[in-house]
Amino acid sequence: MKKKDLKKAIKEKEIQLSKLEQHMDKSKTCAEVYNNVILEKAILNQELKEECKNKFAERVKKLIPRKKTLICDYFK
Asked: In sequence order, what are the residues at sequence separation of 6 or more whose Cβ sits closer than 8 angstroms to the Cβ of residue 37?
């Protein structure tokens, strides 16, 4: 999905959450739906975060080898 679609879906989830929050104490079913909507929103937020990452920079970071510092390096 595109960033715009993800943002729109997140806003819809926020609206659903605000409506469900009022009725969450009244029934167990509403509480379960509320929890599911929270999970869906978290998944959408994670997808948006992944979409916003600079994929080229991530590839370059993987190609460049990093020297790992060992504990014994500090005592030389």
From this structure: 13, 16, 17, 20
Structure tokens at 52: 């916003």
pTM tops 0.90 = no
Helix, strand, or coil (residue 24): coil
Distances (CA, A) of 49 to 12, 42, 44, 45, 54: 18, 10, 9, 6, 10
- The tens digit of pLDDT for each residue in 6-48 reads 889 999 999 998 988 888 788 888 889 889 999 999 999 998 8
**Which DSSP symbol is given to 71?**
G
DSSP 53: S
